[in-house]
Amino acid sequence: MSEPQTIPQYFLYQVQRYGRNKVALRQKEFGIWQEYTWQDSYEYVRDFCLGMIALGLQRNDHVCTVGDNDRQYLWAYLGLQAASATVIGMYTDAIPSEMAYIIEHGDAAFALAKDQEQCDKLLEIRGKIPLVKKVIYWDAQGLWNYDDDWLISFEEVLALGKQLAEKEPDRFETEVALGQGDDLATLCYTSGTTGLPKGVMLSHANLLYSGNAYLEIDPRYDTDNHVSFMPMGWIAEPVLGIAAHVYSGMVMNFPEEPETVRQNVREIAPESIFYTSRLWDALVATVQVRIKDATWINRKLYDLFLPVGYAVANKKFAKEKPGLILKLAYALGNQIVFAPLRSQLGLSRVRSAYTAGAALSPDAMRFFHALGINLKQIYGSTEVSGGATIHRENDVKFASVGQPIPGVAVRTSPTDEIQISGPTVFQGYYKNAEATVQAFEVDEDGRRWFRTGDAGHVDEDGHLIYLDRVKDMIRLANGEQFSPQFIEGRLKFSPYIRDVMAVGGETWEFVTALIIIDFENVGHWAEKQGLGYTTFVDLSQKEEVYALIKEAVDEVNQNLPPTGRVRHFILFHKEFDADEAEMTRSRKLRRGFLYERYQDIITALYSGQEKVRVSASVKYQDGREGVIETSVKIASLR
Asked: 636: which DSSP letter?
């Protein structure tokens, strides 16, 4: 076999290498981890590929996919690409109108949907997506009574594939062999923070190069385990999951349900883990709350040894070796505090942990390294196949997002915009030539540089310092600039803060913030204080809760320059909601929309008011829903 060029070709290479002698994937069902060998996977991928061809799938067709991370999703992904089709992943929580836009814009000929919920969305928008010939589902629960030949089960497609395989035994291998590295592997739609999502065209070569570059930095072995739970509509899972699976032979593990991910991660204890910065922030909150609920002796041990962990981490970051006494103290702390904590988090075997999506605060990075978790920041975007930089082993700088991966070049423009060039850079935006031209700057040598829209600079050690989105950097009336994302990351280190939007502008001389409490953690704290409440709105407006959050804001302010300190804040009456277009599906704030939607509240933050009236949807503990008018307090810090 010649050198593989595509994801299915690498998959076929691993099948020939391992056959039935090695587990390729697991999925937990009914409380039991079911195992499938590489040969098992091969048969499912082959039959699905040929079944789709029997249904009329053509080379270069586009297929939209939506559903939880399951083995059937992986087999379908590989099977579609084996037939030289392009996969378009969508988020499971996408509303019908969002799905209609992507399916129609992406010219999808088929759709793959997990279950009744997703099929119902597609049936609702059927008239808006006339190109879709069939919808294939793999979880039949709730669909038994549906009588619509537009829907077809995964098993029916497999049966069609088996029939074609019997007639043409070599057809699958022939289809896989026709693939080329430059073939379009996936259309990955951007989050659309400032407008409609754009379809990023990524080739097999893009995905494989990116996946392999990370394996060069942090090797994966065929004995390693990967837990697949990041959305397939996001670029991270196709690169760090699927591409790494077929390239290294590592074992894929699929959770029983999205709600059991944390538990399933603990059971598998993978060698590598990828969480968004939001999930790492949530993990910090989980640890902090658990420690507060622990026994007296465990709290004292944690308080005793955490400073030891920080001391060792600081030595590591400074590239210094800890002394003998510090080593012995850490070894003891590791045995009785850190190792049990890592085990509870499912990180007992992790060699490398990654964070991306937004810059993780230095506080959180330092915290996890103190616990002995080798956490590294990745920086990139969909347009560069996920990642362009990463921290190297023993070379972690809190202020940076690492150094460029092998073969990728990073520079900054005279206006401090980060630009990236190399084999991971996308082919262009689908059906949007104007945006494609605007996305690139071509140098005198004809080299294309992707204009990220991010602000930053490269330091003397070659580390990239990421500041924020260029458009999100805020200049105050006094001329000072600040990064909202930096302030937000520091505030979210508090276990009681779930979301923040830092606010400022050229007409104002100081920073304010809209803060959303972590309802579960604050509720737990309130119960321990004997503080009664009924709804999210009620809890958020308690004087005691304002005092709790004010402590966190005060602490962050102490480490900010005077012009960047939060002077006023409110505890928001609701969570930001992707369904209301306040966030993207990847949980990024749509700042422009939020500024416009909550203009009255923001104006109140700067006008010296003590309260502002808002309307809020509420859900009571008995399940009833309603809308209430309430006043939200404005807190001041001096």
From this structure: E
Output the average pLDDT for the chain: 91
CATH 3.40.50.12780 residue ranges of the chain are 44-215+228-245, 276-467
Kindly report the pTM of this predicted structure: 0.83
Whole-angstrom CA distances from 246 to 52, 351, 512, 588 are 22, 20, 48, 30
Could you write out the DSSP letters of every residue in 411-443? EE-TT-EEEEESTTS--EETT-HHHHHHTEEE-
The CATH code that applies to domain 44-215+228-245 is 3.40.50.12780
CATH 3.30.300.30 fits 473-636, yes or no: yes
* CATH node for 276-467: 3.40.50.12780
Of 3, 426, 9, 358, nearest to 207 by C-alpha is 426
Is the predicted pLDDT of residue 1 greater than 60, yes or no? no
DSSP 456-507: EEE-TTS-EEEEEEGGG-EE-TTS-EE-HHHHHHHHTTSTTEEEEEEE--TT
Cα–chain-centroid distance for residue 440? 25
Segment 211-247, tens digit of pLDDT: 999 999 999 999 999 999 998 888 999 999 999 999 9
How far is it, in rounded angstroms, from Cα 507 to Cα 160?
Answer: 65
Helix (H) or strand (E) holding 200: strand 199-203
